[in-house]
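User: Hey, quick favor. My workstation is busy. Could you predict this chain's structure for me?
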Amino acid sequence: MSEIAASGPSVLPSSGSPQRREVEFRGGGFMAVPQPLYSWVAFAGIIALWQVSISAGWIDPVFLPSPASICIALWQLVVSGDLWIHMSASLSRIGTGWFIGTGLGLAIGVAMGLNSSARAVGMPLVSAIYPVPKIALLPLLILWLGIGETPKVVTIASGVFFPTIIATLAGVDAVPRNLIRMAQSFNMPTSGIIWKIMMPSALPGILSGFRISVSTALILVVAAEMIGAQYGIGAFLLTAGNLMQSDDLMAGVVILSILGLSIGAAITVFERIFLRWR
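Assistant: No problem, here it is.
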């Protein structure tokens, strides 16, 4: 046996054969790589160029105030207490309207995803009403519900309601049907199928719809407060614009931007908590 093994072919490459070379991995799939340094550098560069343009006189500060003057306006809002007054009014309207619209949208979206009759009735109505700007209904809601918080909350809820229905319906439709058939073959009750199979599978699409609905709620609360409110970010922006206080106007825009970023970060935390299984 030793002779046969000795006479067998050698596994060592000959001197004339090409050497093996590792090939670089090319299957990244365009995966996003976190690069927070680039984000901060780009943001700082934009702010610095903005400030230099104002200081050098290239841009009239009446039309575009400098970042320094915006920071001063924000600080004055904090010191005077006006920031909390306007923020609390807007957050109260957003929270109430968003929860009402989201709850109704989830319920109807799931019903349309599970029941063909509900889909047949609801889909044409959603397609017809969804494109209508909800802020255009505010005067009619004021006529119906009176002047107060109710028309603003209903406007926000209606704006959140339809995106939630569409996102929920799309998420339910994306659930693999073989999982549902397998659960039905094991005689799992309908409630168990909904809560243990359909909702976890549809949750990524629903949370993505939440991001859209929150942005819609921010837009609508500002528009509604501009039309008829004494306090709120929208009322503050309208007053600053009428008085040509561009620094206060931009301060309000910055507040809305920070508010949107904060809500988006909160939704990201919810995604990490509820979507650990992915």
